[in-house]
Design brief:
mainly beta, 11 strands
Amino acid sequence: METLTKIIYGAVILLTVSCKKDDLPKATQEGKNIMAAKVNGKTWVKTACWSCIEGGSGLRANYANNILNIVAQQEKDSAKSSIEFLFSVDSPGRYLSTSGFNEINYLSKAGYYETTANTIGEINITKIDKTNKIISGTFSFTAENKDNPNDIITVTDGRFDVTYN
């Protein structure tokens, strides 16, 4: 019995040590003004900064006439990047970047990346609250560098929970 206890104890320690902490903010639906994702496996979280949009908040969200536009910026170690959505959405659900003018873009010092016919992006709207002006959801996409189509980024585990104008 003592050997079994040691094996179980060892397994618990191994699992605890090997679990990787998720450093993205939790997905919420409360208008917490978050936007985050993994860009090529690295954490990307919207940050406030001195020169960012919306008075330094680093986030702008507009939703009118069923057009959703979200722009979020990150400033980290003097490097700036942004993620932008432009989608026609009328209710919660899944929307692809390949339909209509729906698009997702990523801008960094490495270049301007966009979803195209060769790449795909999607957003999944989980909440639209028109009374409290909250829109929430998840997203993922691949995008190619406008100047070098062979340079592709992958964005996964995206989440946003924003109040909009």
